[in-house]
Amino acid sequence: MSNQSLLTEGWLPGVRSLSFGGDYNPEQWPEEVWAEDLELMRRAGVNLVSIGIFSWGLLEPRPGEFDFGWLDRVIEGLHGAGIRVDLGTPTVVPPQWFWQQNPHVRPVMRDGTVLATASRGICCPSSPEYAEAAVRITTELASRYGDHPALSLWHVHNEYGAPVSECYCEVSAAAFREWLQARYQTLEALNHAWGTAFWGQTYGEWAQVGVPAQSATTSNPAHRLDFARFSNEELLGCFTRERDVLHELSPGIPVTTNFMATNCPSMDLWKWSREVDVVANDHYLTAADPRSQVGLALDADLTRSLAGGRPWILMEHSSSAVNWQPRNLAKAPGEMARNSLSHLARGADAILFFQWRASRRGAEKFHSAMLPHAGANSRVFQEIVQLGADLQGLDAVRGSQVKAQAAILWDWESLWAQDLDWRPTVDLFPRQQVREYYERLWRDKVTVDFAHPTADLSAYQVVLAPASYLLTAEAVANLTAYVEGGGHLVVGPFSGVVDQDDAVHEGGWNGAVRDLLQVSVEEVLPLPADGQVTLSGDLRGSIWTEDLLPLEAETVVEYLDGPAAGKAAVTRRTLGSGTATYVSTVLDHETLTGVLDPVLKLAGVSVQRELPWDLELVSRHGNEGAEYVFAINHAATPVDLPVAGSDLLTGENVSDSAKIPAGGVRVLRR
Ligand code: GLA
């Protein structure tokens, strides 16, 4: 049971402003340092910290023996300083004694490797011993601190699914069998869904069904897809088990866990978001992405969508470099503020970091922090102090909403299915296709929500499905109703191919959407590595082409060369008052203008291409018609933005045009 009423009653208990802070790990430091922490937090305007996330081994040094003294002192110190507490359940790292007692709980990887334990995030999610120990420490924490006046939030575990989300041990196999029995009831149904007649895999007894561990060659794809579903649900079960303890013993305090919206491919966050009281997300820039600000915005928009449009928590991001990418680029001056305010602009009401003070020891000593190794006189800390002050100035934004005209479909199950091996090409990346469509709209200043293919889409003028390999009959009915109702739908290549069992739909390569799109995919024609095709209208496609047979659809773009030369590349049909466009090749964000512009026009969505592409523009909408326009300038030159309003950061009144400084941000209320 989720505690959603907490959200309608307000935000986090005791929180009356935008939240600012981060993971705080005082247990890594002598207590003398704690007073300085509090003083510097005060200077920076920190008002919420996450504590205790990794401290099970300190809190329960021996089985059933607890030491809460140090945590009592930490919480009292924070409370005295007026800093709200987000208290972790430390169940992401069981203590060493747990592993000594339960070596069999170490997860087994697909290739049979048994993971060692001197790390974190490793545990068989189906283990009864782990469940019992996790409930015990959670119960102790909830009983001791559940009604503490400093407590605003529970932070269960840490980043479920990362780095490991599946376990192939015997206990997991037994749990998987039970899960399959509940899903299919009969072995006949399982054999049918998995298509076990292929390669003679038919099961005659439940006991014969195992986990899809590494085999001689590729495994049954439906088996693997079900195992991905099962693994997601096992971890979700670990979360809800702790959450239920917390709800019971600490009523009124919301419970969350930190998602990684785009960085943990194995969790179906549509399912998770229904179970948390408030959505929280971690995001780190990808240094190798030359436009990582676009990736950030995509991640934030996906997070807001998971939150159903309600405010959410940026639980972690970094003040500067991380330490786990091949090349960890430091953030340039001003970049951290742009990143933070982009999350805020996209619906976050809490801006938190990993972590408060840089660790001297351990695996993350080269990761940036709010208070870096260089100390309080450093540029990074000065920027943190400035950001804390800016957030105070932006408090009016709290609770306001982001409105999107467009939605992009996002379905983890479809991604899992398409990620399996033996696909027609290794070059077709569904997440990259989503990114290109998203980036097109980001550059055009069109705000985007993400939606599951079965979600209510009626609020959107345009819906993009850049990569919908797996579509169920229910999803197709939903998309059809959307178009009939006047919506404008754009579907990308290799979509509507398989059903929930990864079985090809009847009716051709695009059997699920053939009637809706009124085009038949007769054959898929992937290109050689680095292959490109020329399209009419001066467009270029890459990676993938198809042999299309338009039915009742008109051809709007043709292949001029390549294996489908002379045939339709993009088609459109009208249905009711809406349209359905099919794009059968891979287009990048530049080329996409040629295909999306006519659809956006039909949908009445205006693009703002007269402004520089790298001016990020997005609004939050508050009570009584207030609009907060966030203008985030990622370029090295200033921009004049035609807008009138009052600047929340400087207090200046702007009558017709605001100068957005190079690398700067302005937030205008109008
Ligand atoms: C994750 C974890 C943190 C920390 C950061 C480093 O998000 O949750 O504990 O390891 O990464 O970037």
Question: Could you provide a short overview of the structure?
Answer:
The chain folds into 3 domains: 3-166 and 235-397, TIM Barrel; 406-603, Class I glutamine amidotransferase (GATase) domain (Rossmann fold), CATH 3.40.50; 615-669, Golgi alpha-mannosidase II (Immunoglobulin-like), CATH 2.60.40. Helix content is 31%, strand content 19%.
Helices and strands in order, then pairings?
Layout: H1 5-9, E1 19-24, H2 32-44, E2 48-51, H3 56-59, H4 69-80, E3 84-89, H5 96-101, H6 128-145, E4 151-156, H7 170-184, H8 187-194, H9 221-249, E5 255-256, E6 258-259, H10 269-273, E7 280-282, H11 292-306, E8 312-316, H12 335-345, E9 348-353, H13 379-393, E10 406-409, H14 412-419, H15 430-443, E11 448-451, E12 462-465, H16 473-484, E13 488-491, H17 514-517, E14 519-526, E15 532-535, E16 539-542, E17 544-550, E18 554-558, E19 568-575, E20 578-583, H18 592-603, E21 615-621, E22 627-633, E23 639-642, E24 645-647, E25 653-654, E26 657-660, E27 665-669
Parallel strand pairs: 1-2, 1-9, 2-3, 3-4, 4-5, 6-7, 7-8, 8-9, 10-11, 10-12, 12-13, 13-20
Antiparallel strand pairs: 14-17, 15-16, 18-19, 19-20, 21-22, 22-27, 23-26, 24-25, 24-27
Helix pairs in contact: 6-9, 11-15
Bound molecules: alpha-D-galactopyranose.
Alpha-D-galactopyranose binds at residues 158-159, 282, 284, 316, 322, 354, 364, 367.
